[in-house]
Amino acid sequence: MPEMPPARSAWARGRACSEDSRVATARMRAARMRFKTGTGTLMRQESTNPRRRQCWSSMSNRPVRWGFLSTAAIAASALVPAVRASRNGVLHSVASRDAAKAREFAATHGFARSHDSYEALLADPEVEAVYIPLPNSMHAPWSLKAADAGKAVLCEKPLAVDAAEARRVTAYFQERGILLGEAFMFRYHPLTRKALALLREGRIGTLQAVRSSFFAVEGKAATDIRFSAELAGGALRDLGCYCAAIIRMAAGEEPSEVRGVVQPMAGGVDARASGALKFPSGVVADFACGFGTPFSASYEFIGSTGRLLVDQGAMVAWPGTAFPIKLWTKEGCEEITTPPANHYQLMVEDFGEALRGGRALEFPADGAAANLEVLDRVRAGG
To answer: Which of the residues 101, 157, 194, 326 is marked catalytic?
Structure first.
């Protein structure tokens, strides 16, 4: 893990720019980023004050101090290693409503401090970016509270429970000039980039159709939060969101028609679901997702002269593991291997660079509402 800078050193430099370090910090944050309303594009506003510009330079070289809002399993298994391995982030604070659990998590994973409430972490002046891996129903409320505290937010997917809530959240952040990201890590993986590059290069001709599936959570206990309607669980929000995302990325446009069928389970959430989409260009797509089966995740692009398949691990691509792309063209079948990578780390680094550089994320959170719109329409049957 990168060495943790002294707790007050960065703010000491801030005092050189202002007699009141907290006021100076707030002003710098406000000036660093401005969103163009509705586009998700960050605009940096440069100061004409030479001393303030010097302050900006020192800020840009300092690692982003991350705070984790919860000790969820995904935080320990994915985001802790990602921040630790990143070139521009440090593990600073973690919060749990169980003080002992927060202390233990902090000691185990190398956080500088722990908090016994989420509110306390948001009030921590040293925390700059907050990662939110809470249950789905809590994503939007705590993202908004983080925005009120002036914190940049990387929220687990889905950003909200439905498209309407996602639009409210993204607008809230845009109005305040605060950075917001949705943690769809697979978009950063070389596997995804290569598959989409082959498609854009025309290796399979003109795209005709996309197919995707994601099945998992075999033999999990009924107490799993993904089985709770109150916590906005269900296969669509947990797994189908990946399928919808890769389909939309491949098509490069939003669907004009969506149909869906859902198989509910006890508790009121969807156990399995499938969706059929049609796009303005004429591309069609379908996906299926569900709980209670062995792991399976894949997608396929079907073109006018060939097809491309990414099988078993497509939207997950575990860090350190290489997955092949199978490409069929008129010349035959070719297997293409992309290098293994930690896409969580790549996502964290992009977030840090955007926060420090006053630029947009490579994948702005604006797309969250469009992705949830597909899921909403599938759940409604179309």
So the answer is: 157
